Amino acid sequence: MFFQKEIETMPRKELEALQLAKLKETVAYCYNKVPFYHQKLTEAGVGDGSRIRQLSDVQYIPFTTKEDFRNNYPFGLNAAPMKDIVRIHASSGTTGKPTVGVYTKKDIDVWSDCVARVAVAGGVTDEDIIQISFGYGLFTGALGLHFGLEKIGATVIPASSGNTEKQMMMFRDFGVTGLVATPSYALYLSEAVKEAGYPLSDYSLRLGILGSEPCTPEMRAQIEANLGIYVSDNYGMTELGGPGVSGDCPERDGMHFAEDHFLPEIIDSATGERLREGGKGELVVTTLSRQGMPVLRYRTKDITSITYEPCPCGRTHARMSKTAGRTDDMMIIKGVNVFPTQIESVLVGMPYIGPHYQIVLRRVNFRDTLEIRVELADAELLERYQELQELQRSMHDRLKSVLGLEAKVTLVQPKTLERFQGKAKRILDLRNEPQA
Amino acid sequence: MFFQKEIETMPRKELEALQLAKLKETVAYCYNKVPFYHQKLTEAGVGDGSRIRQLSDVQYIPFTTKEDFRNNYPFGLNAAPMKDIVRIHASSGTTGKPTVGVYTKKDIDVWSDCVARVAVAGGVTDEDIIQISFGYGLFTGALGLHFGLEKIGATVIPASSGNTEKQMMMFRDFGVTGLVATPSYALYLSEAVKEAGYPLSDYSLRLGILGSEPCTPEMRAQIEANLGIYVSDNYGMTELGGPGVSGDCPERDGMHFAEDHFLPEIIDSATGERLREGGKGELVVTTLSRQGMPVLRYRTKDITSITYEPCPCGRTHARMSKTAGRTDDMMIIKGVNVFPTQIESVLVGMPYIGPHYQIVLRRVNFRDTLEIRVELADAELLERYQELQELQRSMHDRLKSVLGLEAKVTLVQPKTLERFQGKAKRILDLRNEPQA
């Protein structure tokens, strides 16, 4: 089950020769087309990359960070003229400004290939009817999977997220064979299917292609049992163009990179040094094919390890283990990136409230919930219920507007939240706690 | 400004010869591939259509109605095997079941052509940066425009709907030149842009391609003035494959059908008789190119008229005037089809409430709002506020789940809503009332 067998099983020597050629091309392209990279590469003495002799020379190239994306918002990292750009995607950034990705026609084509590989490796064929329950829009997940699955020739149902009853109705009525969703939404849906009480024989579901947030083995097992399906996982992010960077093969023992399009490394996130094979550290990725927005050594902040060992599935491309946390305080809630700074930006300047707040994450019915506990400035205020209700609603609406997420706002009495010496502990992540 | 000039300006004689050939093909295709049509065509004596001699013979073909879609839910009207279907779209039906449309690869291609014609006629070029603020997902509007605009080579921003602040931020930051939205959302956004206070010179907006609900000349003028843009209108519906059925040319004196793909007629909705050119009645459309779901003489329930007069723009395809209401009680709210039966299906069986309710539509800040006034069964109940709050929330959530729309639920005292002899007047449409 391969989408592009020749490439996916290419001997490593050939693959690495291809990577080296594309790395040199990419460095020259960045040097010539993106002033930001021109300056960085010049300062680092790498120049247009013509002196790069081996893949490990990538270590002399400076890193690109989330901050570089922010500082170059929106189009400072573009390498192609806007006339050649056919799509713009975006995800939440660390501040109010989103992280932007731009695509040429060829970028969309390569992206669709990468996604198609992941989907075919997960068992999708042109006879499948796939319901995409990612939220459609600026988010790369939904349209990324959509184009990849249409490329395979599968039937795509652009269900988007939410509306559980309708999702389940379509499962049954449309003979849906595959689900694309975040692991947490898939788990939630699988519980809803169980509760709805129809026998599994009323469903034709046989596989799930999950992604955009980490999926634990326990979640996977639960989803598979509830729906009677086979689940595979995949990995990607807006900065690298979206999903399709890596994905499970039938062995499910590490996700294969699309190494002809991405060059991965693992570094010590403190020193920036490259680690030996198998070492656990921060994933760094260089894009090898992107025209619209090539990225050199992007620090993903995801902690993982890489193996180049041959895989029984026949694929020769390197595998990454499931991510084991992040180096920053970004939260992924229902597949949406959320930074505490975004929440703070909403609260600042609101009337009646003090400077103290706490972010509480829970998993209720297998679904992420986000609660913001905000302290009132004055004890007597709780009396003024109606005004407060209005306040609560206003905070809720503005949070939703900024985050693109539903958040419950709870008002609590002054001085009831814990105070901290030094850095405040604002995040209480209870998602892996047993449910009450 | 044509996307397919040769077809769009084809002499009528040739066009009608093409339509006749395609009509005969379509009838034979339906007769051979769809048992529902086989039976209907046999009963009507039309058979496989081989005796059709002229376009007006279409009158001997039986109508297809919304009820036929419902009775054949989900795939009874499919003419192509599921293996050839690459996409499924859906919109709200009259009951809990959606109206389904299925597409082959060629259907998507033809659809994209039709949308591209509308967009190019509205002024879009490959240099435009277009923000699509339709809700992405099962709704045909967003993905229909998306594929059509990518075909032109424009830069597409899949913004989806909602999150006004972010919409405006993207307008400014991304140099957006065109907006795709419903007229009511465009009007709302245009007011928000005015209020935000940035000078129009901070924006690069120059055009709007609006659709999926009727746009009055007053709305259009207001949107154009607020944003300093040129607005064109277009028409379509899920049953006919989505947007692209007809659209404004630069004359904006009627929307040109894509007559090589659609055969339009106007009938007296009471008698079913065809009207003479220019007569006002119900629009009936036969698809001439669809493979996945061909439709014979679909009764759209939209009231309009058609002219075949030559248009100064050079297009030879017939034009329809703006729709002047509908023959049923379907409401279009923010581009979403809503039937009173859907609302009733949510209310039935809820505790505490009586059988009386009223649907109130308003336009607040140029945005459609939907309020459901529900009468309580018992006067003392209003005391039990918290329980009622829970009830209200539950109704709201279930309505949102069924309609895909935010609806405010108001509880009012028993016996305060008007009673009716005969058919109850449940809809109070105040959208065209002056705002308080």
Descriptive overview:
Chains A, B: Residues 335-431 form the AMP-dependent ligase C-terminal domain. Chains A, B: GO terms for molecular function: nucleotide binding; phenylacetate-CoA ligase activity. Chains A, B: InterPro entries: Adenylate-forming_Reductase (IPR051414), AMP-bd_C_sf (IPR045851), AMP-dep_Lig_C (IPR028154), AMP-dep_synth/lig_dom (IPR000873), ANL_N_sf (IPR042099), PA_CoA_ligase (IPR011880). Chains A, B: It catalyses: 2-phenylacetate + ATP + CoA = phenylacetyl-CoA + AMP + diphosphate. Chains A, B: Its EC number is 6.2.1.30. 2 copies of one chain form a homodimer. With 436 residues, chain A is of the alpha/beta class. Chain A has 2 domains: 5-327, 3-Layer(aba) Sandwich (Rossmann fold), CATH 3.40.50; 338-429, ANL, C-terminal domain (GMP Synthetase, Chain A, domain 3), CATH 3.30.300. Chain A is 31% helix and 25% strand. Chain A contains 11 helices and 20 strands. Chain A has helices at 5-8, 12-33, 35-43, 66-71, 105-121, 140-152, 164-173, 183-196, 217-227, 340-347, 385-403, and strands spanning 85-91, 99-104, 129-132, 155-157, 178-181, 207-211, 230-237, 242-248, 255-257, 262-267, 281-287, 298-304, 306-307, 319-320, 331-333, 336-338, 353-364, 367-376, 408-412, 427-429. In chain A, the strands form 5 sheets. The first copy, chain A, has a 9-stranded mixed sheet with strand order 4-3-5-6-7-8-9-14-13, sandwiched between helices. In chain A, strands 19-18-17-20 form a 4-stranded mixed sheet. Chain A has a 3-stranded antiparallel sheet with strand order 10-11-12. In chain A, strand 5, helix 8 (183-196) and strand 6 (207-211) form a beta-alpha-beta unit. In chain A, helix 2 (12-33) packs across helix 3 (35-43) and helix 10 crosses helix 11 (385-403). Chain A is globular, with a radius of gyration of 23 Å. The two termini of chain A are 43 Å apart. In chain A, 47% of the residues are buried. The mean pLDDT of chain A is 88. The interface between A and B is large, with 48 and 47 residues.
